[in-house]
Amino acid sequence: xxxxxxxxxxxxxxxxxxxxxxxxxxxxxxxxxxxxxxxxxxxxxxxxxxxxxxxxxxxxxxxxxxxxxxxxxxxxxxxxxxxxxxxxxxxxxxxxxxxxxxxxxxxxxxxxxxxxxxxxxxxxxxxxxxxxxxxxxxxxxxxxxxxxxxxxxxxxxxxxxxxxxxxxxxxxxxxxxxxxxxxxxxxxxxxxxxxxxxxxxxxxxxxxxxxxxxxxxxxxxxxxxxxxxxxxxxxxxxxxxxxxxxxxxxxxxxxxxxxxxxxxxxxxxxxxxxxxxxxxxxxxxxxxxxxxxxxxxxxxxxxxxxxxxxxxxxxxxxxxxxxxxxxxxxxxxxxxxxxxxxxxxxxxxxxxxxxxxxxxxxxxxxxxxxxxxxxxxxxxxxxxxxxxxxxxxxxxxxxxxxxxxxxxxxxxxxxxxxxxxxxxxxxxxxxxxxxxxxxxxxxxxxxxxxxxxxxxxxxxxxxxxxxxxxxxxxxxxxxxxxxxxxxxxxxxxxxxxxxxxxxxxxxxxxxxxxxxxxxxxxxxxxxxxxxxxxxxxxxxxxxxxxxxxxxxxxxxxxxxxxxxxxxxxxxxxxxxxxxxxxxxxxxxxxxxxxxxxxxxxxxxxxxxxxxxxxxxxxxxxxxxxxxxxxxxxxxxxxxxxxxxxxxxxxxxxxxxxxxxxxxxxxxxxxxxxxxxxxxxxxxxxxxxxxxxxxxxxxxxxxxxxxxxxxxxxxxxxxxxxxxxxxxxxxxxxxxxxxxxxxxxxxxxxxxxxxxxxxxxxxxxxxxxxxxxxxxxxxxxxxxxxxxxxxxxxxxxxxxxxxxxxxxxxxxxxxxxxxxxxxxxxxxxxxxxxxxxxxxxxxxxxxxxxxxxxxxxxxxxxxxxxxxxxxxxxxxxxxxxxxxxxxxxxxxxxxxxxxxxxxxxxxxxxxxxxxxxxxxxxxxxxxxxxxxxxxxxxxxxxxxxxxxxxxxxxxxxxxxxxxxxx
Amino acid sequence: xxxxxxxxxxxxxxxxxxxxxxxxxxxxxxxxxxxxxxxxxxxxxxxxxxxxxxxxxxxxxxxxxxxxxxxxxxxxxxxxxxxxxxxxxxxxxxxxxxxxxxxxxxxxxxxxxxxxxxxxxxxxxxxxxxxxxxx
Lengths: 965, 135
Prior knowledge:
The structure holds 2 protein chains of 2 kinds. By secondary structure, chain A is of the alpha+beta class. In chain A, the strands form 5 sheets. Chain A has a 6-stranded mixed β-sheet with strand order 14-18-19-17-16-15. Mean pLDDT of chain A is 77; it is low at 138-147, 227-233, 399-403, 519-549 and 779-789. A 5-stranded parallel β-sheet of chain B has the order 2-1-3-4-5, sandwiched between helices. In chain B, α2 (37-47) packs parallel to α3 (63-73). The longest helix of chain B has 17 residues, at 115-131. Chains A and B meet through α1, α2, α6 and α7 of A and α1, α2, α3 and α4 of B.
């Protein structure tokens, strides 16, 4: 098939594997401790992703399997059913089937059916779970979202606010120099603010905040800034900034956000604002002194000025106040506006009162500034003060009637049940209006109209109010459940019933008009309109751990890269060999000798040669350094965190523990220690096996543990550590430990030792017997282990990788297995030997010792030779002969042999010469070479010659199979 | 002038398939890809694509949140490619409400030469429409 398709299939394999591993870890974790919503969500998404991948590849049955699991998790994710251990077990079973199917699919690229029984089981479970879920669902209680008057989507609002905060900060810092009271700055430097303003305006437009857009556009227009004004203030700039600040503050208070950017603006505007406020206070005080003049027209003119000043002062002070305006000044603003239009008259008493209040306010303001307190109105005092001012005004501004009116009005307000928000926006004029009409015996209603659903209907309704003798006193708009309502306070001579009938004509469904009759009645018919489909509020995982730039590389590519580096290393060592070659020195020496006889030419030549030689030496050194680093780096590419190996353990421990009724806690430490990828496969099974052993033989059943005074729950701890260029893995359990006596007993039974020898063995020696082939102290073969092929295979694997394994145990306390392995298999330590003229490399790990063979040590029988070593007879074989080389006759004296051992068996291999220990970079060899008995790999020496690296295990086997032991 | 497409999906396989499908149309060019919402926002700022092909179920920031943030910063057109947001589902409605041009399902079916012809054409047609090209 095409390369593209193959690539996609490899990706499919990788991605599905990742999801599978994640699911397994999560399911086992969920079983051990309660499943959090995040975990359930992650499980759901992982199965969902597997389904998606399966669908993309056309593997429909695989997709269906994942889908069933996803459905079950879907119900659990809604909170309608718990992730209990039965469900977890079922999902694990589904996961196992997924693993199997995946393997088949990846191999065959063809669809395959999943186990029908499992599918059935999943379907049945899903239906029953779903049943319980819907039965809970009766009340249909969707909590109402809070009323936000700003925007119906709280999430978008939040994002907008985040964006705004960011942009405003940038704008503020760009514009700060221009707001300072005294400075002259070049207009150009405000340019960075422009793009920020534009971006914020775009976002505001998207949100429908048209007023904000307008303000930002105003600001934008001003930004190519002119020089400062006389007083150093740039009022063209501060006006839109103030407006912006106000609007942001409004957004903050409406949405309950502490900062939408207003703070940043506040900081740059403070100074200019202080100056402005003082100026306004001065103006007000000044103007008040002119009142009352004898002339009405003059009074009105002054009132006009005062109105403007109060208005400005209000907004300026509002800048410093949390609630954005000063209610007292608002009252004065209102009063002087009416006074300017002639509606109210300005009595001297009012002027006095105003002056006094203004002094108070100014003093309060100045105190707050010096003490750096926030300017606030004292709320308890305020209410009283406002009332007294209002009463005062009404009393003096419109004649004596006012007093009575105030009392009546207040009584009325108290008696009604009007929405306080509506009351707030009732101006005194509205109030007077209301009272007037109420006197005529009308009814008050609160009506909510949904304008958007049927604009035409809404318009007709509003028209009808007028024609039916009713009137809208005041109104506002608000959001409920994402729907825009228009609420009004209406008076009408009609009774509630009559109005309702009329409403029914306009709105038969009753969805667009809601009536709330006041005057003491309980509001009825406030229906809840449901949102179309709830968008799930996913407070998901903390926002994106950056995925960290990653690239996927084919293993083959990495391997050939490593090979290239290996070749470079070898090439360099050849070069080095040449440079260090003695022959050059010999030539130089003989030239020197000739010099005494020869002419000046020889001296020159000598000099040249010497120079050259030094340069070469230097280059060689440099090259060596670079290559060393390169090699390290390359090895580094191949390493993966040992977590990859540990990943399988939680599930395994869970399954084993369950099947034997044991309680186990698995701890994994040092997961980020690195090992060579090539080792991962070889290590995983041994590790799994040892953990299995711990569960089966080490960990006792809970009752037994309790009797021994141990906690119910056993601990198995798997840890990895790096020690130099070795990695150390430890598998520890706090179980019963190795039963030394039983081991000894079995060992004697199997003829590995006898009673007398056994008595003198140390505990460690006895424990080592468990690594012997066929060894097992368990009489009943359990499902998981006990067949006795375990530990010796583990040891073989470990040694093959160049590692060692040992065990420490205390009866009743527990056991710990320790594996020590080289970080990388690609580099191996060997012992160089010569046999029959061939140079061979023996794997360092297997080499136990080098011995001299004397005639006395030889033991021969039936053509098989043995050599006596410390009381034991070791088989003796000629290495060359074993490998099939023709062995030239060697003298019977001065013979040497290398003893190879795998921990349980030892053989002495005779060689002609033992050279040295060194490290070799193992290169891949052709299949036919690797298939040769006894060959593990090959390498190239510094002198360019190829050397075979022998396989210790193979050699031992070959040697021993002939001897029948 | 080729139209610029940004592919956003947390699955490498899916991105590869979608890119392959898009590549069959000479008027469309995939200028970048992203594996999650945050990355997508970055790439949008950098590349100013004409059309975004957006998945919904992604770790970290999901498609809907991404759309909402996107609305505030870019006028690019969004096409939802998702196996979750089927017609009538809450997510599909939400996506449309937020202004997605269309909501289509992920490519599916066996990898074959006429994949593009059979199942993939949906992606191409809708992308073209979103980019303002004649279909």
